[in-house]
Task: inverse folding
């Protein structure tokens, strides 16, 4: 996995607490912080994107605004999902009507 | 119940989704379903485990004699997709048939090239054809919203809003 250096200054108390955790769990301090940070980032990212996707699906925010907030890649994917979800419903309705006639 | 003339190509995610809400058998009664050997292999890999998806995959495989299973040469490859998805994409191109998947990445990279839909299409169809009540369709949609991420959230909200209008 490609990595990037990311330096942060932490309060001494927090570092001491980390030392305790590291000794008790017999784990590497950096590895433990990395794992916990990854969990938190994943959860927070999903929560925020859930809120953004709800606004987008409900038409309260447009693609351009999404692109400004989180970038083109996510905005393009959201647009694709919305378009295909709408098409799935449209096609489902059209063929459902045909099916009803076929079996009536 | 006579089978319609409609044919659909389904990937692993679609087969798993439909079986997870117990409508795969009904879909098979109404439509001709085509898939590939690679999808059957993927289902076999899921079925090795005894978790929820493993059990669903085993149930899908019990119905495999009712699918048409094909292989397709990959003549046109999309670099963002795995080989299983590229084979399905080529099959959809070759047969000019709609592809059903719940993989949003798959949809995103193929939607301008082939006809592609989410499995919610069958919920809407069955409701509109009179096999489901609106309430049953909405309940099944809620069950389908198994993985709560932003991608599935959009599919859920769009389909729910349209179903509620019916």
Result:
């Amino acid at each position: 996995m490609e990595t990037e250096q990311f330096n942060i200054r932490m309060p001494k108390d927090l570092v001491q607490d980390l030392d305790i955790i590291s000794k008790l769990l017999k784990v590497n301090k950096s590895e433990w912080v990395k794992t916990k940070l990854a969990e938190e980032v994943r959860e927070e990212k999903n929560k925020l994107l859930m809120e953004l996707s709800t606004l987008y699906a409900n038409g309260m925010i447009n693609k351009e605004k999404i692109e400004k907030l989180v970038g083109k890649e996510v905005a393009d994917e959201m647009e694709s999902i919305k378009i295909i979800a709408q098409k799935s419903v449209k096609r489902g309705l059209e063929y459902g009507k045909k099916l009803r006639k076929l079996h009536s | 119940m006579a089978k319609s003339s409609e044919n659909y190509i389904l990937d692993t995610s679609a087969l798993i989704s439909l079986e997870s809400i117990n409508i795969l058998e009904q879909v098979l009664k109404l439509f001709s379903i085509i898939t590939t050997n690679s999808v059957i292999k993927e289902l076999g890999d899921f079925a090795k485990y005894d978790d929820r998806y493993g059990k669903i995959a085993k149930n899908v495989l019990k119905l495999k004699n009712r699918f048409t299973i094909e292989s397709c040469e990959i003549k046109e490859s999309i670099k963002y997709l795995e080989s299983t998805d590229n084979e399905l994409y080529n099959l959809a191109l070759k047969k000019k048939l709609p592809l059903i998947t719940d993989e949003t990445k798959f949809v995103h990279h193929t939607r301008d090239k082939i006809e592609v839909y989410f499995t919610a299409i069958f919920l809407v169809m069955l409701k509109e054809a009179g096999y489901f009540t609106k309430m049953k369709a909405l309940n099944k949609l809620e069950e389908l919203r198994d993985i709560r991420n932003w991608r599935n959230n959009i599919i859920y909200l769009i389909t729910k809003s349209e179903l509620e209008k019916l």
